[in-house]
UniProtKB/TrEMBL annotation:
GO cellular component: Golgi apparatus; membrane
One record GO biological process: glycosphingolipid biosynthetic process
Organism: Magallana gigas
PANTHER family membership: BETA-1,4-GALACTOSYLTRANSFERASE (PTHR19300), BETA-1,4-N-ACETYLGALACTOSAMINYLTRANSFERASE (PTHR19300:SF57)
Chief place of localization: membrane
Cell compartments where the protein resides: Membrane
Residues in Galactosyltransferase N-terminal domain copies: 53-154
Stated name of the protein: Beta-1,4-N-acetylgalactosaminyltransferase bre-4
Keywords: Glycoprotein, Glycosyltransferase, Membrane, Signal-anchor, Transferase, Transmembrane, Transmembrane helix
Family, similarity comment: Belongs to the glycosyltransferase 7 family.
Any Pfam family the entry gives: Glyco_transf_7N
Galactosyltransferase C-terminal domain boundaries: 158-235
Length: 261
């Protein structure tokens, strides 16, 4: 697990852009600083996916932030996707006057990917380092298209990635919570986090939907008109094909019935 600011995102378009908010560290006192107002926010609406920018910890210097957000990104072997995500995500977070810290939780062993466990680890470690009031779990390959999709927590868990280009900008099914999901910390503890038992890609998100419902919570969403995302291209790993299949199927025959004919 590490801060994304410690990762080396040296691709050509990671720098040299103009007009993008810079990410800086600040210890400025809260004294004599007014609270941020929603009217201070300046949106640009829809924007196309761009390349490159570093992440880390940021807060507005001219006012007290509206929200304190921990962004948890489960990660393995997708450094280019991470750089692209940071380039697109950081301007959205800064435009919305959020104080935020980004945590990239990396699985470094060769075992099957366990996304749920990485997100749980990210949450537990983030609570030790940052006093946040909202945690957002963010897939590394989903790029926000509209800065009017507010990165925030409400009184219920909030699924932010409603409309994805690869799904024709339609919600695939009612209980979909994969992609980008926001929780109040108390709600994440109430559902007991993600399952640690899903190895390989998929499963943990649908299990989370069940946890939310059975905990008496509801899944909320912003409008599909603003909650739009582009899925970044990445080459699918072929390792899973060797890990799962008949080559890993073990069994013991307890009995075999003889044919009646």
């Amino acid at each position: 697990m590490g801060y994304c600011s410690n990762l080396d995102c040296k691709i050509a378009s990671c720098s040299g852009e103009t007009g993008s908010p810079s990410v800086t560290y600040t210890n400025q006192s809260k004294h004599n600083i007014t609270e941020c107002e929603e009217t201070d926010i300046s949106f640009s609406g829809h924007h196309h996916a761009l390349l490159g920018q570093f992440g880390g910890h940021w807060k507005p210097s001219h006012c007290q932030p509206l929200r304190r957000i921990a962004i948890i990104i489960p990660f393995r072997d997708r450094h280019e996707n991470l750089c692209v995500l940071l380039k697109n995500l950081i301007p959205v977070l800064t435009a919305q006057l959020n104080e935020f810290r980004i945590f990239v939780v990396e699985q470094v062993d060769e075992s099957s990917f366990n996304k749920g466990r990485l997100m749980n680890i990210g949450f537990l470690e983030a609570t030790k380092m940052f006093n946040f009031d909202c945690v957002i779990f963010h897939d590394v390959d989903l790029l926000p298209e509209n800065d009017q999709n507010i990165y925030q927590c409400t009184d219920q868990p909030r699924h932010l990635s409603v409309a994805v280009d690869t799904h024709n900008y339609k919600l695939m099914y009612q209980y979909l919570v994969g992609g980008v999901l926001a929780f109040r910390p108390r709600h994440f503890r109430l559902v007991n986090g993600y399952s640690n038992e899903f190895w390989g890609w998929g499963g943990e998100d649908d299990d989370m939907a069940v946890r939310i419902v059975y905990s008496g919570l509801k899944i909320t969403r912003p409008s599909a008109e603003t909650a739009r995302y582009t899925m970044a291209y990445h080459t699918r790993s072929k390792k899973w094909a060797k890990r799962f299949g008949i080559n890993k199927c073990t069994l013991k025959i307890c009995a075999m019935l003889k044919s009646l004919h």
